[in-house]
Amino acid sequence: MQAPDRAKKPLNALIIEDVEDDALLLVDYLETNDFSVKWCRVDTEEGMISKLKEPWDIVFSDFSMPHFSGHRALGVLREHNSEIPFIFVSGTIGEDIAVEALKSGAQDYLMKDNLVRMRSAVERELRETQSRKDRQKTDRSRARLVAILEASPDMVAILQPDARLEYLNSSGLKLLGLEGVEKEHVEKLNLVDLVSEPFAQQLWVEILPGLQQNKAWHGETEILTIAGKIIPVSMSLLAHNDRHGEIEYLSVTVRDISERKHFESVLHHQATHDALTGLPNRYFLINRFATALELARRHDHCVAVMFLDLDNFKRVNDSMGHGHGDSLLKQVSQRLRNSLRPGDTIARHGGDEFTILLENLKHPDKAISVIRKLREAFLQPIKVGSQDIYVTFSTGIALYPTDGQNVEDLLRNADTAMYRAKALGPSQYRFYAPSMNARGHEFLSLEGDLQQALEQNEFRLYYQPQVDAQSGKVVGMEGLIRWQHPKRGIVSPADFIPLLEGSGLIISVGEWVLRQACMQHRIWREAGFNDLRISVNVSATQFNDRHLMDKIQRAIKEEQMIPHLLELEITENTVMQDPVAVIETLNALRSEGVRIAIDDFGTGYSSLAYLKRFPLSVLKIDKSFVDDIGEVGGDSTIVEASISLAHKLGLQVVAEGVERVEQYEFLRSIGCDLIQGYYINRPLTEADMTDFLVKNATQ
Ligand SMILES: Nc1nc2c(ncn2[C@@H]2O[C@H](COP(=O)(O)O[C@H]3[C@@H](O)[C@H](n4cnc5c(=O)[nH]c(N)nc54)O[C@@H]3COP(=O)(O)O)[C@@H](O)[C@H]2O)c(=O)[nH]1
């Protein structure tokens, strides 16, 4: 082999020729025609095969040789998969054979004695080989690109400028549920048909026209599978221009982000909901509340926020353990949720506190109907472990726009109102009033003084007479506490009982009231007023005191009280707190001979039918019902019905707060047993009560 001349066109030629001179003539011809030939001559099949490993640009072959043939040489070359151009150069070839040779894959044939066409034939073959190689390279890289697109986990599509599908990769077919669908059907689809409303609109009206200018759109949206399933996706839409700057085609890459969205929503739920109850948390509520206020401001609506605090939750937690406490909270949450409308928001504020947001209220009173509904929902006990627990809650309500203009103020005011409700005993509700804040400060200073009031002997017991409705004779009295404050004078129990409740002092002050009443009763008995009954109020906190029975028994014994003349007034709500335990205590009191009165009847959420299971003696109809008597639009049928039913259940009925003669007369006419109220007398000091008894006895 000879080295090629670098100034000329290099040509590596394998020459299959038995005659060395013919080969040299050929090379000489090529060299004189501007080729620098690197060549090798073989004349056997083995020789050719051994040389095929080298990088030949062209093969020249004689047609017939003693040990080899041009035909066979062409066969060998093609068997080795070689696409190297093959040119016959022969002295003997006839036209038929030449045609045959071309048919069998040779690129050309030339006569040894006429090589005029050789230069152009070689140049042509080299050119075609090069362009074939280029084409193959392009095909290969195209195939690779398609393979990459097909292997992509994202949907990739090529679209016509009007968004019709031209190509859709396998992931796209899979994502859209188009696997197995005929290609021609797929190609009829438009991207607009494959996205959900309202993105289809946006795509059509805004995004596609905008691509002329913007060239690209990226965003998160939803696509619609052929089966109608909506899948959240991230999408990149690109416009590809032709050389005139017109959109030639579009490409779109779509990534299924369902999993990410799912995790995002899980995270969002965790950040906005309470893990124990699954209810929205404080953060969620504040956001929702802010939106509700915006809307209310715009549409002139009223919004109520209610703060609920479970009564005695701590007792359940402490006595039954946190596991049971959690179970109670979960069940309470469920009941609260079920009692509200879908548009109302209930959130767990923390601990045993819940917040309810009532939007778009027509009237603030609607909040009361909601409280009633909630109370009804809790009439049935909640089973925790093996115990039935009756749940009550204290509620504070603040209203937009009257009680505040922003979330913070309204929540704070609802909280203040809730604390005031809680101080009144279980199951109470209070609407916020600005005076609550002012009184809050006053309360603080009173609270400090209360600590010493008992030691300093500052409490007084006043007595309000109860008379027989028919005869007008005094048959008993209610003991009502007052606080003789050294600086403020007489302080109303409405102002300090909640403080005593809150501090727990009510237990010892309640005991003082009981003993004071029993002691005074003995003094009046000794003065000849023998059969008078005396009643005292027992708050829910006192009722929960496990030493209550013991204290009552000791007071009766030590103050020489006649048990059947002692009456304890408890409210419906005290009864409802824990009915099973209450029945037990009431039975014990009854066996001592002590009478029990239900105070403020009608203000709670029990019914007489419900109360009949308790060993009660007296029903005190609340002043609010008595107030209705004789008023225009007032409804006295409740009073009538209550008295009639109470009598059927063997209860004596006392009407409280009787202020006017027509109330008295009406109550007498419908069979009310006893009357108490300013119409008879206000609560009196013991001295004034003694005078009143004397006067009454002599009338
Ligand atoms: N746990 C205890 N609670 C007590 C005790 N003493 C009183 N209280 C409770 O405080 C609340 C306010 O009591 P008071 O200011 O004494 O008001 C009572 C009566 O004075 C009042 N009343 C009676 N008749 C009329 C009337 O004709 N008009 C009118 N406007 N008010 C009237 O009503 C209150 C009656 O109380 P009750 O029968 O108990 O419902 C009050 O809730 C008391 O219960 C105590 O020692 N312990």
UniProtKB/TrEMBL annotation:
It comes from the Bacteria. Residues 301-434 form the GGDEF domain. Residues 443-697 form the EAL domain. The modification 4-aspartylphosphate is found at residue 62. InterPro entries: Biofilm_reg_signaling, CheY-like_superfamily, EAL_dom, EAL_sf, GGDEF_dom, Nucleotide_cyclase, PAS, PAS-assoc_C. Residues 141-182 form the PAS domain. Keywords: Coiled coil, Phosphoprotein. Residues 112-139 form a coiled coil. Residues 217-269 form the PAC domain. NCBIfam families: GGDEF (TIGR00254), sensory_box (TIGR00229). This is EAL domain-containing protein. It comes from Alkalimarinus alittae.
